[in-house]
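Practice record 12: protein with adenosine-5'-triphosphate.
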Amino acid sequence: MDKIVSLCRRRGFVFPSSEIYGGLGSTYDYGHYGVLAKNNIRSLWFSAMVQERDDIVALDSAIILNPRVWEASGHVAGFSDPLVDCRTCKLRFRADKLDEAQCGRKPSKRPGEHTECDLTEPRQFNLMFQTRVGAVEDASSVAYLRPETAQGIFVNFKNVLQIARRKPPFGIAQVGKSFRNEITPGNFLFRVLEFEQMEMEFFVPPDEADRWFEHWVQARFDWYLKYGLRRSKLRIREHGEEERSHYATATSDIEYEYPIGWGELEGVANRGDYDLTQHTEHSGTKLEYVGEGGERYTPWVIEPAVSIERIFVAMLADGYDEEEVAGRQRTVLRLHPAIAPVKAAILPLIARDADMVAHARSLYEELRTSHVVEYDDGGAIGRRYRRQDEIGTPFAFTIDEQTLEDRTVTVRDRDSLAQERLPIGGVVEWLEGALRQPWASPKAE
Ligand code: ATP
């Protein structure tokens, strides 16, 4: 994980937030390549969920909702983790994750194992960030930053049902920031205080819920394989009854083997009719489906939920590689081309050669109208390749002396390092084709 964090910092993917003021624990800012990679993850999720389906529509609800939403959903009373303090070292731990934590006095021991540990009894700690709305400071002005995007979807159920003229099974998808005052944030982007959640609530007739639950677990698992995560690093783990949230009748986590061990990448839950029923009771607005024949029921909800951050860390960890090529070390990010922030580099071999530069600039201008590509003429060609390898650029086009003679360029493949020559006029089409090819990690077992 340290190597990934340092690469992200060095190449401007991710910076500690407000760093010049000493940062704010577990809050991060994204630099250029981080923004590009996140955009790719978001748009591939959106394509799979909305664009490529007939039965799911998009929504973008507010971050600060009427606080009664969070009373109805159970978050005010129950969105909490058990917390223990150590009176000796003053550190805080999640009582249910002590076996993953380190004692403040002796990191090789767990909290409570050292003779000097003095842990308090567990108490519940609500993870929602509170804020205030309006100029008056009284109890009625208290509001919350949303800890999940899902509730914004449930409270819009009636709007979408009527205006998008949907009938179950249908889904509503949303991407946006969620906020959680985590007791023990950390492990880079894995557990942060604010993250971009991608959630889809799929409303189904109750007797179809089991089938759709299985469908979404499998569909989401397959999505990760499609975008290059290694099968050996992915698994599906069903929650036991004691672990499930109060509202869920079934939950399966898609787990990834992060450098810190197996952890939840995405959760898929069968939320039953809990949310629509709660909001019906608290708001007085009936959130149910009424069919043309007059039949009515409260749909059940299947929810796949994930954050861009957890996907991003999984992809960085999966793709990070160091190897020796012709006696020199290289660091390479073997990202799926669709995830890679930059799709191709355009490199004039000799930066002082006006003809090479003219060809390279013109190819660059052409390619950049449809893809994020980079022009780089700084330093020896080997160093330029290494720079692109480190940020995961799958292809590099080099303009050299031969280009001036026969109008061909070299294309270099990031993973195999194979090089071939192409007519310069065919590069646009070649890149389109190459980016559409299925891709699997060369590290896959
Ligand atoms: P965990 O048990 O790891 O705290 P959770 O079960 O509380 O996670 P959910 O409430 O199911 O998480 O949230 C859905 C998804 O949102 C998770 O699968 C994860 O991808 C993402 N997520 C949740 N909390 C965080 C966080 N603090 N930082 C980054 N991503 C998060």
